Input
Amino acid sequence: MTPYSTTTTSARFLLLGDSHAGPIGRAAKEGGIPFHGGPIGAGREFTAEFFDVREDDVVFRKPEADRYYRGFLDELGVSALGGLTVPLVSTLGFSAHFVATLENWQVYRVRGEFPTGFLSSRLFDGIVRAMTRGALDFYRLAHELGLRVLAVMPPQRVPGHSDPEVFMAAQDTIRRALLELGTEVVDLRSRSTDETGFQRPELCETNDSIHGNLAFGRMILADLLARGL
Output
């Protein structure tokens, strides 16, 4: 895991995320955009409960993640999440490929197919929200602390161990849940996908079935800057 913080003191935002935060950090570093933060762990580690609340702060249960987080706060000159004076940009919770793991959904299929309307049902919505409850709680707390919060949707890439139908529906459920909390969602699907609905090849990391590349990171960064970051 490699943090991507710049060294300037005039940071424009704090970046906290899984590996999908990497291209964002690299793009910002390349473009000379001051920020602090970067990836703090794998996406699967940030779905169910993964932190504890301590006054106006969080303590990540995984020591490595908390160590990175504390370092980023130190660089920003604050001691707690509630002390942030810059926006929080995060990819946490959008590990739709993990939520969509094939084995998790076989029980809901009938003769190999989901019942009509299942992926848009209250049952499906509830399952996905339960699976990502830790991430939703994290965003909820950030809003309660008065932060401006932006969540970045993942690259539209589905590895072989994940169900594409579930991936697409699950990320929409997560997006809706975050919008309900007041989170700004960076959704570049209209520009980053081709006619298949999946990530355009030129925006994919090579020799990799999940991540976006630096070009995708630049697109995200441009959107963030257009929002005033």
In short: Residues 184 and 227 are 10 Å apart (CA to CA). The mean pLDDT is 94. The beta strands are 14-17, 36-39, 51-54, 57-60, 88-90, 149-152, 184-186.
